[in-house]
Amino acid sequence: GILNRWRVGSTTTYFAAWRRVAIASRAFAAARARVVPYVRALSKRPAQRTAADLQMLYGFLVEKDARFRRMPRYEAIEVCRKMRAEEYDAGETIASAGEDDGKVYVCVYGAASEWAPQPEPEPGL
């Protein structure tokens, strides 16, 4: 168990550490539960998605990404019809600078970082 890693400290220290782990675990489970409906809808083939699936995905997209709030609703719904779920491992590179795979990525669960190279300074500046 997790408590075996700590060899020194009081029972209070053990309890406090275990409490932090338990709270983090509950938060993790709650976050995972929130995305289940989206993953379920995205696991369907585009033609099998219901109007309710599309509406739910649309609501998610416009909440998460301003690009979808600016486009006409019918276009965003079409994106919802065609989009799919992709899972990536921690530390995995999804796309590299200069690479154009024609995809738009929206993080449904977890976290992602964007790393871009610094532009070269123009000569004489």
Automatic annotation (TrEMBL):
Domain of life, source organism: Eukaryota
InterPro entries reported in the protein's UniProt record: cNMP-bd_dom, cNMP-bd_dom_sf, RmlC-like_jellyroll
Annotated ranges, domain Cyclic nucleotide-binding: 67-110
Name of this chain's protein: Cyclic nucleotide-binding domain-containing protein
Species annotation: Micromonas pusilla (Picoplanktonic green alga)
